[in-house]
Amino acid sequence: MFKKILIANRGEIACRVIKTARRMGIATVAVYSDADRDGLHVRMADEAIHIGPPAAADSYLVIDKIVAACKQSGAEAVHPGYGFLSENAAFPQALEKEGIAFIGPPVNAIEAMGDKIESKRFANEAKVNTVPGHLGVIEDPDEAVKIADEIGYPVMIKASAGGGGKGMRIAHSADEVAEGYSRAKSEAKSSFGDDRVFIEKFIVNPRHIEIQLIADKHGNAIYLGERECSIQRRNQKVLEEAPSPLLDEETRKTMGEQAVALANAVNYHSAGTVEFVADQDKNFYFLEMNTRLQVEHPVTELITGVDLVEQMIRVAAGEKLSFTQDDVTLDGWAIEARIYAEDPYRNFLPSIGRLTHYHPPQESTDDAGRTVRVDTGVVEGGEISMFYDPMIAKLCTHAQTREEAISHMGRALDAFYIEGIQHNIPFLSAIMEHPRWVSGQLSTGFIAEEYPDGFFPNEPDEGAVGVLAAVAAIADGINNARRRTITQQMEHNRFDFAAYRVVVLGEQSVAVSIAGSRPSYTVTLEERGEAMIVTSEWVPGLSVFHGTVDGEPFSVQMRPILNGWRLDYRGVQVQARVYTETEAQLAALMPEKVAPDTSKMLLCPMPGLVVSIAVEEGQEVKAGETLAVVEAMKMENVLRAERDGTVSAIHVEPGDSLAVDAVMMEFE
């Protein structure tokens, strides 16, 4: 077994590998760029070596620098994580020349499966179902349009060397193919250094299902069940679960056996994933094989009990698998939610900055066997940079049933507190409450179909109103009682905790009275005549209100505002102001603040780099016409005109770095 390994990656996956290596008694070496000098993976590793400036192309993607770090540290093997060099065949070749082991598959498998065009040819030869499409490299937009016309719309334009949703576009017409082709090539070049793209038929109402493989160097290959990754945005996975609510045992076995057959065809070893697209009738087609560890691997680990990182290390060291296909059993249900640095209220545009507060839920397994797992690569006070992927953490839950796993995920999300940047936790919480998600009626179009006009917080139902009003009233009572005793200057005017209150939730007023004291309160909703027993140890200063309502556990995030809090709970985000009855009557008379008019401006929706400007001053534009392209976190974002107009001024040029809401253009 290896004594020391180097992790050629950063963030949460580097931390994840370090945890397993430490448990196995293996020393670890981290590499870091200038932007990651204070990163969590640097702190966790036994050694850390600087490899260059922030841009990945000048640090994490430079093979010579990784090899030099191995030599400097004496690392015997390298785990590549995912992304970066994990599927670059030149990387293990360079390591092999120096006598350094690669904790991953053989070069021939990376070359065969890492190239989307070649992988489909191999899949055809191995008799794996494949999606209809054109497997050759496409040279220009005209050829792309011709091929798309022949295949039939809609089509998917994909980067041959792609992954993680980069370099992918869906096109429903010839015009969309021409623009999508250019955007896909540009993203592919920027992300992978390879601008080749191909086109295949886009399956309508599809589901994304993948089979996890593990194989050793002795001819043993097995599959570890499936994951469903159908909840996606812009082809990037948002939620994953294992197993899939679609599959039955027969379909699972057929897919697994096809995946193993494909792995055997290329003499595969290490962990790998064969991805399929399936329709609602369980017909499935090969998409690609990822010759690396997947982001969503924790859900497979939770339902199988297999540590995939450990197995990768053991396989690379030449060990045989210690279990067979018959030993694999699927226990319960697991869900993974990707916590991204993005603003769900601005069409999920990237957000960067400092994590002023970062409190993930505690990793735990409760008395009912329900588990919370957090894979993260950041700490409070750290920076979310524009140079890398926007994922902050992966939050996973496991329980015996899908319903329990979903409910446990909802509570865990409510307890995940982040400040300093925008994040997608409110969106993830809303999905956990969505009837279609709960029922398992999924497709990769879920987000586009259910949130066609963008994401807005859930409206609180009757149950949520009661919980939120109770939390606000209890917190207000505790705060006021504390204020009146902190200096003993107001002893003559003791605060009455049981006093009648009005909680204003958005535009809804709820009359509340409270009896009891910490940790148990009886909260009565006066208009309903309903009482609930709320227990909590909350004290001023805590950002999350943990407690139970009539015995059921819950968590509510609390952010102070004037006369109350902004509360986040199960996809609901509402401002809760707490008043006396007289204060509530007066507050209702206050005028509302009117937001400034920016309707004649193009504001930069995210921090990013201006790639191109598509218009000139004085030019007339039509609604939907491209105005500019801004790149952030390796994704190109096309900014389009919202309505017809004339460009009166342009304030930026290609190459400019912009802050969020920077004025880019003005219109007459």
Description of the molecule:
There is one protein chain. With 668 residues, the protein is of the alpha+beta class. The chain folds into six domains: 4-103, Rossmann fold, CATH 3.40.50.20; 105-113 and 209-331, ATP-grasp fold, B domain (D-amino Acid Aminotransferase, Chain A, domain 1, 2-Layer Sandwich), CATH 3.30.470.20; 132-201, 2-Layer Sandwich (Dna Ligase, domain 1), CATH 3.30.1490; 332-445, D-amino Acid Aminotransferase, Chain A, domain 1, CATH 3.30.470; 462-587, 2-Layer Sandwich (Glycoprotein, Type 4 Pilin); 601-667, Beta Barrel (OB fold (Dihydrolipoamide Acetyltransferase, E2P)). Helix content is 27%, strand content 33%. The protein is built from 17 helices and 40 strands. The strands form nine sheets. The chain has a nine-stranded antiparallel sheet. An eight-stranded antiparallel beta barrel has the order 25-26-27-28-29-30-31-32, surrounded by four helices. Strand 11 and strand 12 form a beta hairpin. The longest helix has 22 residues, at 462-483. The model has no long low-confidence stretch (mean pLDDT 92).
Q: Can you tag this structure with a few keywords?
A:
alpha+beta, Rossmann fold, D-amino Acid Aminotransferase, Chain A, domain 1, Dna Ligase, domain 1, eight-stranded antiparallel barrel, 33% strand
Mean pLDDT: 92
Number of helices: 17
The CATH first-level class of the largest domain comes to Alpha Beta
Largest sheet: 9 strands, antiparallel
Overall tally of domains: 6
Strand content: 25-35%
> Would you identify the regions where 5 or more consecutive residues have pLDDT less than 50?
none
What would CATH call the homologous superfamily of the largest domain? ATP-grasp fold, B domain
Sum up the overall morphology in one term. Answer: globular
**CATH architecture grouping of the largest domain:** 2-Layer Sandwich
Radius of gyration: 27 Å
CATH topology grouping of the largest domain: D-amino Acid Aminotransferase, Chain A, domain 1
- Biggest β-sheet: strands ordered side by side in the sheet: 14-13-10-11-12-15-23-21-20
Q: Work out the number of β strands.
A: 40
